[in-house]
Amino acid sequence: HLVASLEVEQTYIMVKPDGVQRGLVGEIISRFEKKGFKLTGLKLFQCPKELAEEHYKDLQSKPFFPKLIQYITSGPVVCMAWEGVGAVASARKLIGATNPLQAEPGTIRGDLAVQTGRNVVHGSDSPENGKREIGLWFKEGEICDWIPVQEPWLR
Ligand code: RTP
Predict the structure, then answer these.
(1) Is 107 annotated as a binding residue?
(2) Is 109 a known ligand-binding residue?
(3) Residue 5 region by backbone torsions, left for phi larger than 0, else alpha for psi between -120 and 50, else beta
(4) What is the set of active-site residues?
(5) Which of 9, 15, 48, 54 could form a disulfide with 78 if both were Cys (CB 3.0 to 4.6 A apart)?
(6) Ligand 1 centroid, distance to 79 Cα (angstroms)
(7) Which residue has the least CA distance to atom 16 on ligand 1?
(8) What is the pTM of this model?
């Protein structure tokens, strides 16, 4: 369980192949935009097997690992980097539980998905993994650190 953070964090969010196939890209981007996070990276990308294996290396020993790699490489994904205060835990809340049947209504998975093996979106589980995953999925010139024109009223 992640504790609310006051740090500016980077999180890697990815619309999985089922989300792209089902036409949910706009809807999913919209949830993070509306929340108020800053988009710093965005691309449609066909993921090679090696990258999927590196991304999910902590799950290597799980029985579902080969199926997971097959799933993630089955079609293009949408790779995103989002930045904000407490962005990692907050994005995980917006995404909802891994099993969509246990995800609360109002979350992306709670509203849009049914199966764990087709749970439409990924979100980094720690700030360290956020940085690691953004480094894995994006090349240096693909991340854009822009400054919002208005200062927030509160922080
Ligand atoms: P994600 O990394 O995709 O955001 O998902 P997560 O942290 O909520 O879940 P994690 O345990 O890291 O698992 C990564 C992805 O593997 C698939 N999975 N399948 N068949 C199964 O029991 C099973 N468990 C996990 C899901 O696609 C999950 O999102």
Answers:
(1) no
(2) yes
(3) beta
(4) 122
(5) 15
(6) 17
(7) 68
(8) 0.93
